[in-house]
Each structure stands twice: as structure tokens, then as C-alpha cells.
Amino acid sequence: MEQLIRQVMEDVGFIMPQIQLTLFACGILLMDFLLERRHKYLNAITALMGIGFSGFALWRVRGYERLAFNGLVVVDPFFIFFGFLFLLATALVILMSIKYLEVEAEQEGEYYALILFATVGMMFLAGGTDLITIFIGLELMALCFYLLAGFLRRDRRSNEAAIKYLLLGVFSTGILAYGFSLLYGVSGSTNIYRIADAVGQRGLDDPLVFVAMVAVAAGLFFKVAAVPFHQWAPDVYEGAPTPITAYVSVASKAAAFALLLRLFLIPLGPLRANWEDLVAVVAVATMTIGNLAALNQDNVKRLLAYSSIGHVGYILLGLVAGNETGRTGILVYLLAYAVMTLGAFAVITGMRRSNLIGDRLDDLRGLISKNPVPAVMMLVFLLSLTGIPPTVGFYGKYFIFLSLIETGHYFLVVFAALYVVVALYYYFRIVVMMFMQDAREPGRMTLSPGLTAALVITLLLTLIPGLYPEPMIALARFSILP
Amino acid sequence: MDYFRDTILNWVLFVPLVGALVLLAIPGDRKNLIRWVANLFAFAGLLVALPLVAWYDKTEAGFQFTIAKDWIPSIGASYRVGIDGISFLLVMLTVVLGFIAILSSWSFIQKRVKEYYIMFLVLQVGMLGVFMALDFFLFYVFWEVMLVPMYFIIGIWGHERKLYAAIKFFLYTLLGSVLMLLGILGLYFFHSGLHAAGAACPAIDAAGHAIDTFSIPVYLELGKVLPVPWQVWIFWAFFISFAIKVPMVPFHTWLPDAHVEAPTAGSVILAGVLLKMGTYGLMRFSLPIFPDATRMYAPYLAVLSIIAIIYGALVCMMQKDMKRLIAYSSVSHLGFVTLGIFMLNHTALSGSLLQQVNHGISTGALFLIVGLLYERRHTREIAQFGGLATPMPIFATLYMIISLASMGMPLLNGFIGEVTILIGTFQVNKVWAGFAVVGIVLAAAYLLWLYQRVMWGEVTNPANKGLRDVNLREAVTLVPLVLWCFWIGVYPKPYFEVLDKPIALLVQRVEVAQPAMPVAVTLPETEEETPSEP
């Protein structure tokens, strides 16, 4: 008994980051009652403090590589990498949100609490080694996101986004749960390492295993918005509050990829020969649909939504290659994608004023003459999204391309490279609007301190690793799954 | 002084960048201050490059003034710059034309002055970097970086159809560069495969360590061991990129749009320097790294070059717009350059490189001339002019010399370049040389006809009566180019001396036969074995 308690106490240390976040989220919900309406922004500061504490807890468990709670969760460099990525994204989203909620007159404590709860869910997704943990983490994250997407109660688009997200999300979770149940049926265990053994013994030709794999893959493709399960993304992106759009497209996608990588490489790892072609086809289709559909969008949020579908295709290609370079590339790509996408959405968030939603392409007209600094920042983010060096976005593509060449996927790599040219075209439609069209109506955007901080952080994280990527590459190499 | 000498390429490369950063700090409404600062930094960029002329060692075939610093050790990329005879001439061309182009923009650019000069200085850094880089990763970074400012220069300060021209330029070039990136990655993979296979290839560094590297001097030796199928695929990946940039004939359609819509200085740099990146790439990379593929395809590419020469010239005859005419003349002239490259002999290659410099000077000057007229009359239509020699005598003289230089008149630069290329071509194939000569005749026809329609006869259009002759600033942009034309035309010996050793090394690398390779290399994951004959 005493030993059990000692064991639990020790293990608690490994989920301290999640505990910290949960405590602060609950704290926000309690404190929210005591705050006057004009002081509600203090909730954001509490949330940021929570992230700080959680980050410190995460820092304390760095370098460990062990299972906790009888194999329910794991602490390994992969988890630490994603944990920091989630915290970074969450902090930036909170910084972006303060002013935005003020303008929307929706400054509520729940908002920040929900964001923190979602982060807890993501961390359990990235660190879960048991189907139960994973599923609970997934649901926790998803439920928070359904609420956040519909947070602007008075806005029809926001409501539509929430309903769509909820229905399709639940549907996809159902498929995933079905796949999980089959995996359990095959192996008699919910632990992913035991499942890996069982699946390995069953072999490639077992129809049950195949169906389980397809169901799990379909559920995961839904979460990362890969074709043909991508339709929810543009509508949700367009309707959700802009900071939440950024959050969904960055953090939830990164979390889904953390899960996808862990599941494909560990329990489904023995089935590589079965899923490699499947993932390759999905990746090419995703790049194609995402990039081509982005070409004629007139709403920047929708454009970025489709382009993010395109990015998913690139990341999946890293999984197809699957060697060390490819897995490094996925992490580098996700990191790069997170900072540059958050930066781009931060600029769009800044466009929101009392009389202007600011997400139409036309709203950016002549931004350079009114607000040169955000316009140039946006240019940097867009160049990075395209993959032009020396920005961080280039290195993601560099590693993915190199891994495909190393593993002999020449056809795929040419495909992937050519879509960079397509991507340039639609990203530069934004640039043309900002730099080469005259502004129609006056009115500068006002940058709140929070938004400025978010912009500066994302800009530095786009440029500095772009010019000197060594630490980032070393970090990604250290953090890959074996 | 020693410190300066050791780091001179850094100075040449980064003085324009410092200029751009300084401009960033100046408020945008102080237009004249901005102009002065930009011109001073462009001039300083020229000044710091001048010692290269004195210090350059003609007896050395390899790279000189090299600087190497670790940059991304985990993937083997480093900051490594250096120049040999080939890049030396192009670097000098770039600093001179860059300064002249910036000077020529003084009165033409009136809106968004600050952004313009920042873009131009950044462009200058990108171009110099491309010519100096001795690391493929670095090379690729500069190659891409340079696209962005050029895009903005065309897209913001260009003429009526600027948006279309700008994005077309960017898309075409990016299409080429992503393919080149794949080619570079292919070489990189091959090179690490050599180490993994434990092959004793000449690409291992002096200490014999197995290292991942993007170092260009190492890759230049790969031609000896790269199996033919690899050569073919990677050759095409590089070739498409360079051919778009040159542009060679089916890839040339972006050029007329970009040149015509760009502001004057943009056209000068586009024609004078940017196009040379393609030919530079062919000479620097395609020939030595893929010698077998090059020899295999050289005849076809030579025919493509001849088609470019004649097609470009014929299209010139039909143009109504001065700038479009000169743009198409670039297609024709660059045809000579690529013809010289694919003859693969010493004479033609030297001529080809000299012709790149010549084309930069004379076509750059021709675009300046069109720009001068455009500033005065706001039109480029040939029919609007006529008899301009009467109000503008000095201008007429300068324009005449430049036209003659461009068409290949003896005593002027174009003659030396074209004749050397033709001699080299003659050694390989007499029919090709014959067709190329047709191109020279046509060049004389369209350039002189243009001159005749614009400058001679009575002043028919009253708007042309009171045109102002060139002012001092404009003279400063044109006269040095004219003098340079004469220098190359009368005394080209120093140029050929500079080129002699590097070109000899290049020819030796192209001619190295695959069977002469030192070891048989087995590559991971490929079944090809390099053919080895006893």
C-alpha cells in the first residue's frame, strides 16, 4: 500500500503540467465571478500564468523517458516537444484574444478556462499510451473546441461553425472509437505497445486488423482535416472567432498529428506496408484539393483554411517517407507551421474593428500604406508559409523533400514541390492586395499590447530559426519517436 | 588591410544590406535624403569591390578570397563564399550595373521611394550572393531571396500590366527553383550515399572524414562518380531552372512581360544581371557536375539555342514597342551565350562568358535609353518618335554606339564575344555557325531599323521638338557603359586572361570520361553501378 502511494506520488510529477493547467482553469472559473466586467481581461493574465507554471513543470520532466500510471501516459522527448508546442500556441492565442473579445463584447472567463482545458486534452493526446487516455484526451480537447468555435453566441456564422464542427467531429470520433474497439478486440489490451505486439503477430493479411487500421486512419484523417475528410475545416475556420480559428488550425492539428504519429508508428507500425500507399494517396489528394481550392477564395480565413489542408498533405508525406529525416521533418514542419500560421492569423485578428470583420481579402487592400509594420510581418509569414528561405517554413519542406528522395519516392516529391508554386500564387493574392492596391477607406488598425506581443514573438520565431535553424533541427532530431 | 583582403567578399555582399537597413531608419517622406543614402551605399558597394580587380590572381584556376563559416552543421550547410574567374566578372558586372541602375532611378521613381531603394539594395545582395556562394544551400537561399524584391519592383513600380508580369515572373522562376532544390537534394543524398558506401571518392575532405556537406567545390568533383542515370535526372532538374532564368526558347514567355512592365532600373537589372544567373548556373553547375548528361544533350540544346537566336531576332523585327523589342533581343543574344556554353570547348566557353558581360552592358544601356525617352515622352511606341537626333545630339551619339555594340560591330564589345563564340562553334559544327551568323545579320537589321525610325529623319511629331538632351546624371549612367564597351572591344585580353584558367578547368571537367573514374561506387538503394572499363 505504502509503495503504491509512493508510486502514485512519483507518477503525479509526470502529469504535473496537465495538473497545473487544470488547476488554473478551475481557478479562472471561480475568479470570474468576482471580477467586474471591465476587469475580465485579468482572466487572460491568470491563464498566461497557468501556462507559465505548466511550462515550468514540463521543463522539470524534460529528458525523462518513462511510462507512468501503469502505462497510461508516457513522458518522452516527443511528448515534451509537443507539450511546449501546445503551450506556445495557447499562450499566443490568449494574447491575440484579449482585444478581440473586447471588440466582440464577449470577454468571459469561460473562454480562457476552455482554452486551458483544451490544452490539457492535447497534452494527454500527445502523451497517452493507452487507448482510454487517448480517447479521453481527444474528447476533452474536442468538446472545448466545439464550445469555443461557437463562442460568439450572437453571430450566425459562429453558431453554424460550432454545429458543423460538433456533428462532424462526433461522427469522426465515433469511427475512431470503432477502430479502437477493434484494436482492443484483436489484442485484448488497450495499451498501445501490447497492441503493437498483437498486431505484429496477426500479420498484414488479417482482415480484422485491416479494418481496424482503416477505421483508426479515417478518424485521424478527420481530425487533421485530410482529404476526403476535410470539408468541415473551411466552414469552421471561417465562422469561428479568429483567435480560435488560429487555435484550431495550429494546436488541434498539432495534437492530432502527435496522436497520428504515435498510433501509426507504434500500434499500426507493423502494418506499414498496408498503410504506406494509403497515406501517400491521401497526402497527394490532400495537397491537390487544399492547394487548388485555395486558389479562388475571397475570404482570408477560408484561404488559410484550404492552404492548411495543403500543409497537412506535406506533413503526411513525411510519414510516408518515415525515415529519421522524415520524422524530423514532420516535427520541424509542425513547429514552423504553428508559428507562421499563428502570425498570419494574428494579423487578421488585428484587422477586426468595431465596424469591420476584416477577414475578406478586400479588407486588406492597401494595408502597407495604413499599417506598414503588420503588412510587412504578414509578408514574412506568407513567404514562410510558401516555403521561401530564409524563413522557418522552408526547413519543414526541406526535410520532407529530402526524406522522400532518400526513400525513393521521386514521383511524390516532384508533386509536392510543384504545389509550392501553386501555393505561392494564392498566398501572393494577399500580398498583391496589401502592397499593390490602393486603400479604399481610411482607418488604421490599432494593435493592442497583447496582439503586438503575439506578432513580435511569431515574427522572431519565423525569422530567427530561418536564419539559424541549428537549435530547432537539433531539438526536432532529439524529439522524434524511435 | 589584410583583414579587409581576407573578408572582402563579405564587404561586397553586405554593404548593400547595411544600406537597406539604414534606409529602414529614415522616415519615408524625406525622399531626397533616401535617394542620396541609397546611391551612396550602391557606390560604396562598387568601391569595396574594386580592389578585387587588383588582387584577383589570374594564374589560379580555383576559387579565391574564400570565406567559410559553419552555419547549420547538423545538415552540413555552411556560409561559404568565393570567386573564380567566371564569377569574378559577373560580380563586377553586378556591382557596376547595380550602381548605375540605382542612379538611373533618381527622378523616375516618385512614389514609395523608400521601399523602392530598400528592395533594390536587397536585390543587389541576393544577386551577388548567387554569384559568390560556394555552398549549395546558401546558393539556394540567395537564389530565392532575390525573387522577392524583384517581384515587388515589377509589381509596384511597373507599368500598366505590372501585376500580371510580376506574378508570372515569380511563378516561372519559382517553378524552376523548386525543381533545382530537388536536384540539389538529390546530389546531397548521392553524396552522403558515397560516404555510407565507404567509397574512396575525391569528394571526401582533406582529412578524409565522412561529412554531409553542400560545399560546391566538393560537388564539382562529383561529375567523376555520378552514374549516368542520376546525371540525366538531376541535369534536367537543374536545366529547367536555369533555362527558365536565361530564358531559353520554350521557357521565354515570362521575359517580354517582365522586361516591358518593369521600371527602367528593374529592366536593366533583369536583363543585365538576372538572366546571367541562368547562364552562370549552366556553366558553374550543369557542365562540371553532369558531364555525361551534358555531352549527351549538348547538340539538342545547341539547336535550341540557335532557334532562340533566330526566333528572337525575327520577333524583334515585328515589335512596335521599343522596350518589347529590346526584351526580345535578349532572347536572341542569350541564344548566343547558351550556344557558346553547349559547344563545350575553351574558345566558345570564354566567348560565352564574355558575351554575358557584353550583353549586361549593352542591353542594360539600351534599357536605360528607352527609360530616358520614356521619362520625357511617357510612351515607348516606336511610331511616336522620329528625328530625335535633331533635338538630342549627345543622346543620339551614345545610343548609336550602344546599338553598334549590341549588334556586334568591330572595335566594340559585342563583336569580340560573338566572334569568339562563332569560332568555337565553327570547330564543332559549321552548319550551326552558319545559322548563328544569320542571327548577327538580323540583329544589325532590327537594331539599326529601330535606330533609324526613332532617331533619323525629320521631327514629325511636334511633341518631340523640344526634348531635352541627356543631363549630367543620365550621362553618368550611360558614359561608363559606353567606355566599357570600347574597352572590351579594343583590348579584351585581360578578360580572356582572367577566364583562361577557370575555363580550362571547366573544359577538363566536362571532358573527363566516365570510365576514367578511380573507383566503382555502389550506392545504397540503387542498383546502378557506375560503368567501369578496364
- Unreliable stretches of chain B (pLDDT < 50, length at least 5) are 514-534
What is the H-and-E element order of chain B?
HHHHEEHHHHHHHHHHHHHHHHH
Overall structural domain count of chain A: 1
* Shape, principal axes of CA atoms of chain A: globular
Strand content of chain B: under 5%
Number of strands of chain A: 2
Mean pLDDT of chain A: 90
Query: How many β-strands of chain B, per DSSP?
Result: 2
SSE order of chain A:
HHHEEHHHHHHHHHHHHHHHHH
Q: Count of DSSP helices of chain B?
A: 21
Helix content of chain A: over 70%
List the quaternary state of the chains: heterodimer
The proportion of residues in beta strands of chain A is under 5%
Please provide a written account of the structure.
With 482 residues, chain A is mostly helical. Chain A has one domain (2-479). Chain A has 20 helices and 2 strands. Chain A has helices at 2-12, 16-34, 42-60, 77-104, 109-127, 131-149, 156-187, 192-202, 207-224, 232-239, 242-265, 272-294, 300-321, 324-351, 367-370, 372-386, 392-406, 410-436, 449-467, 470-479; strands at residues 66-68, 73-75. In chain A, strands 1-2 form a two-stranded antiparallel sheet. The longest helix of chain A is centred in the middle third of the chain and has 32 residues, at 156-187. Chain A starts with a helix and ends with a helix. The relative contact order of chain A is 0.09. The model of chain A has no long low-confidence stretch (mean pLDDT 90). Chain B is mostly helical and 534 residues long. Chain B has a domain at 293-512. Chain B contains 21 helices and 2 strands. Chain B has helices at residues 2-6, 8-24, 31-49, 51-55, 85-104, 113-132, 136-145, 147-157, 162-196, 216-220, 228-245, 254-261, 264-289, 291-317, 322-343, 346-377, 393-407, 413-428, 430-455, 472-490, 493-511, and strands at residues 64-72, 77-83. In chain B, strands 1-2 form a two-stranded antiparallel ribbon. In chain B, helix 5 (85-104) runs antiparallel to helix 6 (113-132). Chain B starts with a helix and ends in a 23-residue tail after the last helix. In chain B, 58% of the residues are buried. Chains A and B meet through helix 17, helix 18 and helix 20 of A and helix 7, helix 8 and helix 9 of B.
